[in-house]
Amino acid sequence: MATKCSIPVIDLQDLDSPNQLSKLISACEEWGCFRLLNHHEVLPSTLMSEMKAVVRSLFDLPVEIKRQNTDVITGSGYMAPSAKNPLYEALGLYDMSSPQDVDSFCSQLDASPHQRETIMRYAGAVHDLFMGIVGKLAEGLGAKSENIGFENWPCQFRINKYHFTPESVGSPGVQIHTDSGFLTILQDDEGVGGLEVMNSSGEFIAVDPWPGTLLVNLGDMATVWSNGRFCNVKHRVQCKEAKIRVSIASFLLGPREAVEPLPELVDDKHPRVYVATTYEEYRKLRFSTKLQAGEALALLYTSSSDK
């Protein structure tokens, strides 16, 4: 049973103020997630609505067309309901920051000109939003974002559909996990809940729908990059009611080269916690060990780490 509580709320338009920036960093350290408001200059509410309509229409395609959405890396393409996740279905593309990848995704699904144009605009807006958020994270930790090269990091895109039935109420839609990448922007279902995040006490907190806002989660790569300061939030989806639930998730994965703790966060009092790793190496580590809830980070501890 999830506890009733609110996750932190961050106002994007106010992030130039020291107080709001401090609140952002605290949310990342204590929760590893937050609700984002006032992002509509970058990602307008009209585009969010248009994109959600496109997503629903893509899931209505015949399964033989959806199966044309093939993987670039494991899990980046079409995922049909399975024995492990029988209520879950997904479509995706590996790098939404690449016009070629977006075009390929649209072609695989025989997207109409309107669908293609909407997906292209949404991908560009979300990438701009990622860059704004991670720039503020770097600033809040005392690092210079222009030295990090966030704009070259791949951004995976996944649209999710949960086929909740009366028999499945109380069952998991997706098992407990952390995101393997750096940062996730989630446009959740406007009316059907089910997302739960774990707080620092190990309790699950229900994240109720809030139309017109976004959810932001930090993943395992953010924990490495922040030298353990940022929380990689554990979360799951539970079936609360017999309805279809649709969400749009965008993932800033991490650099193609090695990610390691920011040098500004490592000193004699704060020794380096993690060895350097690439996102792809870490993703394969999680897959091979079947450690999906952040436990694989322990395999990256340095010999001097006291974790």
From TrEMBL:
Looking up InterPro entries in the UniProt record yields: DIOX_N, IPNS-like_FE2OG_OXY, IPNS-like_sf, Iron_ascorbate_oxido_reductase, Oxoglu/Fe-dep_dioxygenase_dom
Q: Does the keyword Iron apply?
A: yes
- Keyword terms, alphabetized: Iron, Metal-binding, Oxidoreductase
Give the Gene Ontology MF terms in alphabetical order.
2-oxoglutarate-dependent dioxygenase activity; metal ion binding
Reading the lineage from the top rank, the first entry is Eukaryota
Iron as a keyword of this entry, yes or no, is: yes
Q: Which residues form the Fe2OG dioxygenase domain?
A: 151-255
Q: Where are the transmembrane segments?
A: none
> Which family does the entry's similarity section mention?
Belongs to the iron/ascorbate-dependent oxidoreductase family.
State the function annotated in the UniProt record.
2-oxoglutarate-dependent dioxygenase essential for auxin catabolism and maintenance of auxin homeostasis in reproductive organs. Catalyzes the irreversible oxidation of indole-3-acetic acid (IAA) to the biologically inactive 2-oxoindole-3-acetic acid (OxIAA).
This chain's protein is named: 2-oxoglutarate-dependent dioxygenase DAO
